[in-house]
Amino acid sequence: MNMGPAAKEQTSCSAASKPPLCFISHAWANGGHDFAVQLCNHLRSHRINTWIDSKEVPVGTSVRHSYREGILRTCDAVLALVTPEWHTSEACQDELHLALKRQRSEALHIFPVHRNSSTTPVASLGDACYVVLENLDDEPTLASLAEAIRRGTIVNRLAVALLRQTARERRESAKLLGQMADPLSEACLGRSLSEDSDPLTRYWSAIALGRIGTPGACGVLRSAEAKEEDDFVLEGINYALEQACKAGDTR
């Protein structure tokens, strides 16, 4: 049986149906808070909802608890406004730690935004691309950032649906993650391929990993190939390996 991974491309209505909610991690010192507030206003003009501590923490609520709620249970993306003060802020580093923890499980996207080109990159984000935003009149950069947040939000919502929703929704999420081919979804797709009880979901997870095509994704596929007992899922794994994960391919 060959369903053909070249199924008709489609967009996710449910994953894109509501505006993203982006948590803004920032240090208050040296005008950082004022800049963050203005950035929030600009992002909202691009239909990006934002979470910023000065407005969103209820009176009498633990700030750290609110951060945890905002990052782990509510937001679709995290924007880190990186400055020297951000690097040394205990609260900002706590936010980053929480965001990275969720990134590993649910493909949460973290967007580093540097106030100037000499700002030290965030080591724990590896080689993640960052944006330099020296002033808020830079409309092309703001528009590009908003688009990246929207795309990251869709990937994150699909990743969550892949691990938590009904079999039909999990299948659809796996297909759409394959279309988006975002490397951050590699972990959740790998978990789906190895653990999901639904063969069709495992099949489409394999196809998605093949489209991502990173060395890590290929390694997951090869491990799954050795353990998978369903012939249909094996067909998907073999197709993915043949098309995108040939030996020596390191794209």
Folded structure, characterized:
The protein is an alpha/beta fold and 251 residues long. It starts with 20 loop residues before the first strand and ends in a 7-residue tail after the last helix. The radius of gyration is 20 Å and the shape is elongated. Mean pLDDT is 87; it is low at 1-13. It has 2 domains: 21-156, 3-Layer(aba) Sandwich (Rossmann fold), CATH 3.40.50.10140; 167-244, Leucine-rich Repeat Variant (Alpha Horseshoe). It is 57% helix and 9% strand. Helix 9 (199-212) packs parallel to helix 11.
List its salient traits.
251 residues; alpha/beta; Rossmann fold; Leucine-rich Repeat Variant; five-stranded parallel beta sheet; 11 helices; 5 strands; 9% strand; disordered N terminus
What is this structure, in a nutshell?
This protein is an alpha/beta fold.
